[in-house]
Amino acid sequence: MGVIAIIGVILKAAELAKKIKDGKWWTAPGDVQKFEQLVFSACNKDHEPTGVSGGTALRLKLDQDHFFDIAIGLTSPNLGGHKAGVIESLNPKDGYDIASDDGNSITSQNQYRAKDGDNPDQDVDIEFHVSAQPGREMLIVITEVRL
User: Fold this and answer.
1) Which pLDDT tens digit goes with each residue over 56-114?
2) By the 8 A CB rule, do 54 and 16 touch?
3) Which of 44, 60, 113, 141 has a CA 20 to 30 Å removed from the CA of 135?
4) Cβ pair 13, 71 in contact under 8 A
5) Cα–Cα distance between 129 and 134 in angstroms, integer?
6) What is the pTM of this model?
7) In sequence order, what are the beta bridge partners of 100?
8) Which residues contact 47 (CB under 8 A, 6 or more apart)?
9) pLDDT band, very low/low/confident/very high, at 128 (cuts 50, 70, 90)
10) 3-state secondary structure of 85
11) Where are the alpha helices (DSSP H) in 2-137?
């Protein structure tokens, strides 16, 4: 596993990586600063009978040269079960393909070295844990885990 130094974490919506298969974005994913929440929503177009399904990709900018990429998939049909999924990828289709009724979780393939916020002279090793929970309001949680 690679270890790098992290100066700050900024969540960036991946450029051109927003895709809705059925339906449309009501509020498309956008950029947020560190420690902010990213909220986005999709709708079923104008009376689209299939509901909403698709994916998006997000990029955590760790420093100028290093990123942690995740693809998120979702389905919210008018009839049937909701699905959600997350995978380490920058391809929205990978997120859509991994979506399931149970959702899933992943741990970053790499570990990273960061500065301790309480003690800037001390380095800490971290990894990211990401979970996807399906539902009418899908929930994606990204957690920084100290090792």
Assistant:
1) 888 888 877 888 999 998 888 777 789 999 999 988 889 999 999 999 999 999 998 88
2) no
3) 60
4) no
5) 17
6) 0.78
7) 84
8) none
9) very high
10) strand
11) 92-98
